[in-house]
Amino acid sequence: MDLEVMNGLLRPKSIAVIGASNTEGKIGYSVVRSLIEGGYEGPVYPINPKSNEIQGFKAYKSVLDVPGEIDAAAIVVPAKFVPQVTRECGEKGVKGLIVIASGFSEIGRADLETQTVEIAHEYGMRVLGPNIVGILSNSDKCNASFAPFLPLPGKAALVSQSGALFIAMDASTYIRRVGFDKMISIGNMSDVNFGDTVSWLDQDESTGCISLYIEGLKDGRRFMENALTASKPIIALKSGTSAHGAAAAASHTGSLAGSGKVYDAAFEQAGVVRASDLNNLFDRTLAMSLQPPMQGDSLLIVTNGGGVGVLATDSAERYGIPLRFAPEDVQAELRKYMPEFGSARNPVDLTGMAGRDWYQVSVQYSFAHDWVDGLVVLYCETAMTDPQDIAEGIKAAVDGSGVTDKPIAVSFVGGERSEAAMRWLVENGIPAYNEPDTAVNAMASLREYARNQNAAQSFVRNEDVDEAAARAVIANVRSEGDRAMTEIESKAIFEAYGLPVAHTRLATTEDEAVAKAVAANGPVVLKIVSPDILHKSDAGGVKVNVEGEEAVRKYFREILANAKAYKPDADIHGIAVQEMAPWGTEVILGSVNDATFGPAVMFGLGGIFVEILKDVTFRVAPVSPEQSLKMLSDINGAPILEGARGETPKDRKALAEVLSRYSQMIDDLGDEILETDANPVIVYDEGDGVCIVDARIILKAE
Ligand code: COA
Fold it and tell me: Is 578 helix (H, G, I), strand (E, B) or coil?
């Protein structure tokens, strides 16, 4: 990232408005007006071929006529003129273009967009948009947009792909009391994308946390890398997560992936916290911009009402931080500040008799206690207490505790006095919400952030893999035209990556099949091998548990006959003789090549778990063995592998290792492989390993 150029674009010291206008109602009028009303202190250069003066500023016919330097140009001329004015900006030495104009790729004119970006890059300029509202920065008093005003000042930053929502969210900051320093409308992302803005905001000293409204990422991998290296919390609201398009997927895994599951995985892997809707985005942003992450699972709730305490307890469980009883020393101390009928366990119920003093001492004591990782303070308005008094007590307690590395969130339930007290709390750095559930959810976001940060793992490549051998198999298949890969070929690639496939060898004659069956030293499976028959069972092309020469010969002939009857012109390579894998717990591994994130790996329990319950989890590849272990715990059926109901635990360690190698395979070969399936994969008892019984690789179309 060229910081000087990005600063010129997003914190411009001088601005040209190309297409500035004196005609009220035009966007070119509004942008100049916004700069004036926002209090922008740098020079503003309106550009208009017909006017000498616009809204009190001297106007110029072209940026080339402007005497001073120009950092950013806001472009509000019709799309067809944008490439031309972009070139003039380049000649002038402008750093960044804020292309507000619409009429580009969103209406099928991607050519105009590409042309604009190409010209801009010729001159080293960056392009924000097109099809955007503009940029807002409180610390620069810069409203270079057609949004009517700057947002409520604060420490968060917001990047929005939707223009209409951008303006609406700007306005709603005043009602929601969530403050932003910067808002960036990102539109078509022809050049500057989410990853760029995340990296830039991460180094921006006025930004405390980064909130994103995302419809679709363009370069998912780059976004993940930029998000992973960011040191500030990132919260994303992603719209359009329904499984649209999944039906067209070529494989089982593809149809399970949908678009949402891979996004979910990618965000988690990149340490990005999710928001479920707009309210949630603001609520979580408030907490993230004011409080540190919650490093640990011990959440303490302090309340004056049993009802809100129970509600918050339910919420804590729902959001993944179930409450535990406070240790004895904490309980003993807290009991001093409550009547007999209070409770010091957790939630700590100070009872309705609690006034400022009890709140203050108990909050101060518990916030400072080592056991407590995060604190949620609840208050129900009562006749005997003044909400403002309680708020001030909480703030004094936080300050008095000297703690700055743990989070606190507050919820007051009541009327106008409570609302006013909560506003005061927020202004004083303590996030406050009118629902206990929201306060707990906000706390959960701080916990998720810490967890995601800690789980971020770098991938260490397995060096004992033979990528060249795998590529040779692919090249051989490709050399025979557009044909499917057989099981034997797929397994050869799996083996090149050290994956434990069931020993499977191709026999082209009956005698060969017998010899291979004898060598297997036990019952075998016979399967048809043909690129034209992928659903082998449907073709009568599979026989299991075949033992003895006579049976091998009989079924060899039978399978061949079945296959020929099923598809007379099928290209038959022969029959696979595979050792019978002893039975164990059946799981499935799969992969897709996601349009946004590239190769992604899937894991689930096999059989009905995957067919009916769709109990699967995804990660963007590659994943380390540690991340793979986490995948195994992610699914609902996890206890089955862990050894539920007295069963012996399964070999999760070996399975995680397999998953990690598998993910490396699909990542290394991502340019060739579209989808893969390893189904079934048998997992044995702890220490006894894993066996991949069947494997399938679907290549990308050439
Ligand atoms: N250089 C400088 N000024 C130019 C120019 C050029 N090459 N060509 C035209 N202009 C002037 C015009 O003379 C006009 O000024 P005037 O009012 O003094 O006559 C001004 O620029 C605007 O041009 P005009 O042709 O009147 O266009 P417009 O104002 O009707 O629309 C856009 C221009 C960019 C606003 C419009 O095309 C558009 O894209 N609207 C949608 C924008 C949007 O919603 N974006 C966000 C989506 S979330």
Answer: strand
Strands 616-620 and 673-683: unpaired
Cα separation, 622 vs 457, in Å, equals 11
- Using most ligand atoms within 8 A of CB, pick from 17, 23, 27, 85 the residue to mutate for ligand 1: 27
Distance CA 250, CA 74 (A): 45
User: pLDDT tens across 30-72, in order?
Assistant: 999 999 999 999 999 999 999 999 999 999 999 999 999 999 9
- β-pairing, 524-529 vs 542-546, is antiparallel
> How many CB atoms are located within 10 Å of the residue 373 CB?
21
DSSP 168-214: HHHHHHHHHT--EEEEEE-TT-SSS-HHHHHHHHHH-TT-SEEEEEE
For the chain, first and last CA: distance in Å?
A: 34
Q: Are 684 and 650 in contact (CB under 8 A)?
A: yes
Over the stretch 629-676, which tens digit does the pLDDT of each residue have?
999 999 999 999 998 888 899 999 999 999 999 999 999 999 999 999
The Å distance, Cα 62 to ligand 1 centre, comes to: 14
If one residue of 24, 34, 47, 48 were mutated to test the ligand 1 pocket, choosing by the most ligand atoms within 8 A of its CB, it would be 48
Does residue 70's CB lie within 6 angstroms of at least one atom of ligand 1? no
Q: In angstroms, what is the span from residue 684 Cα to ligand 1's centroid?
A: 68
* Cβ-contact 187, 163 below 8 angstroms: yes
Strand partners, 675: 698
